[in-house]
Amino acid sequence: MSLLPRALPETQSFWDGAESERLRIQRCADCGRHYFPPAPVCPFCTSREVAWEDLSGRATLYSFVITASPWPLWNLAPPFSVATIALEEGPRLLSTVVDCEQTPEALKIDMPLVAAWRTFGDGPKLLCFRPAGDVS
Ligand SMILES: [Zn+2]
Question: What is the largest CA-CA distance in the chain?
Fold first, then answer.
């Protein structure tokens, strides 16, 4: 069994964007709100008038834990963060913060972040975030 993510019809646009390092999520044409995870119906107003948009990638750190368990499937050695990221456009999603010490002293709630794409093991490019202002 593989735990690597794979595209489904509802998520294909997200993964197409990921391959070219563009953060793409859906926005409702009726209520104007962005949402994630992908769905054919707006979770706020049930409209089907939704479309994909490229976002800025700007975000802030909403919450995090630092895990001490390895994740061998993706060659991740602890410590690494599992973080709730608040996108500038509103939605929150789970990810990790990279290019940053994985300590409570370095990871600060509300710290500005920007999307950073990383590949782990044989998987596709995954959406991570790094501190804004750092150049990678
Ligand atoms: Zn809506």
Answer: 44
